[in-house]
Amino acid sequence: MNTDSHVQRLLGKGVFRKDEGHSGGRYFIDVHGSATLHIVEGVDRVVDEVTVAEGISHEIKASERLAATSKWFDRRETFGNWHALRLGSTKEDVLSNLGDPQEKINVDEWLYESTCACESPTYLSVSFKAGRLIELGLEEEE
Asked: Mean of the pLDDT values across residues 15-20?
């Protein structure tokens, strides 16, 4: 279980919003300003949600961009089986790597469900634009 103190040690302070989740949320952008990492805290400041998306979130004001920039957040980080997926992957890449989703919310939003070692349900959501992955999210069910 990762906590807010782990997040700050790994990524810096970022931009904090106290009105998100149970304990707040933090926003980080990569040094190129091409992606946003959003982390939402649950009870006891434990990380509940992690979202990586292309572009700079509208939640980050222009005056906060410097504070949100983290040299330790790299949008090129990979995920999936054998770390074969990343932002920009195609729908075909995702299907080949993760299989069919448990739910297709619509043609461009898919939901995968898995069970972690502690048997807490975890969800992976992926969103596409023009057939390319533009956002992924991990959420722990409460």
From this structure: 96
**3-state secondary structure labels for all residues of the chain:** CCEHHHHHHHHCCCEEECCCCCCEEEEEECCCCCEEEEEEECHHHEEEEEEEEECCCCCCCHHHHHHHECCCCCCCCCECHHHCECCCCEHHHHHHHHCCCCEEEECCEEEEEEECCCCCEEEEEEEEECCEEEEEEEEECC
Cβ pair 70, 12 in contact under 8 A: yes
Global pTM reads: 0.90
The CATH number assigned to the domain holding 123 equals 3.30.1450.10
Neighbouring C-alpha atoms within 13 Å toward the C-beta of 90: 3
User: What is the residue range of 103's domain?
Assistant: 81-140
